Amino acid sequence: MSRIPLYLTLSRIILVAPTAYFLYLDTNIGRWLSAIFFIVASITDYYDGYYARKLNAVSNLGKFLDPVADKILVSSVLILLLHKSLVDPWMVILFVARDTIIGGVRAAASADGVLIDAQTTGKWKAALQMIAIPMLLLNDLHPNIQNNLLGYGLLWFSVLLSLKSGFDYCKTYYDGIKSIPPA
């Protein structure tokens, strides 16, 4: 039972393959299947944390893999959406740059013994991405619904939250290392 959160996190990484494959097919059924796989993968993000807390199965490996799984899922799909001209290059650049910087900050914080909890703005950013991306995947499959405009706007809002949460991570780390007494 204590492995359930880890299996859910790993399943999110595995689900990247069918999500990307069906999106790459560029057919209506492919986009629907891609959206379904993306949504299922997104749901595992909630449940891995839920079960980790409920089963008291929080682990260092899980703490490391959870954000990595999110980045792999979102970045892979955003790159394919960029290839299809459904998102702006700056969106992808800002997300990838922020995620790379935060990965470095987390590694440095861990080495320095500074604990940085997940930021609320980062959680909202992820939630918006998980809503916006399926909207973009299904952008023109119904003539009366303009998913792409709402999805595009939500994704830009998540960029702003991403930058804010990145700043918050860096500030928390900086404040944490200032409080460490010199050796």
Can you walk through the features of this model?
The protein is globular, with a radius of gyration of 17 Å. It has one domain: Four Helix Bundle (Hemerythrin (Met), subunit A), CATH 1.20.120.1760. The longest helix has 32 residues. It is mostly helical. α4 packs antiparallel against α5 and α5 runs parallel beside α7.
The biggest beta sheet reads: none
Low-pLDDT residue intervals, each spanning 5 or more residues: none
Which geometry do the CA atoms define? globular
Radius of gyration: 17 Å
Average of the residue pLDDT scores: 89
Number of domains: 1
Number of strands: 0
Beta-strand proportion = under 5%
**What is the CATH topology assignment?**
Four Helix Bundle (Hemerythrin (Met), subunit A)
Give helix and strand order, one letter per element, not per position: HHHHHHH
List the helices and strands and how they pair.
Layout: H1 4-14, H2 16-25, H3 28-54, H4 60-83, H5 89-112, H6 120-137, H7 147-178
Helix pairs in contact: 1-3, 1-4, 2-3, 2-4, 3-6, 4-5, 4-6, 5-7, 6-7
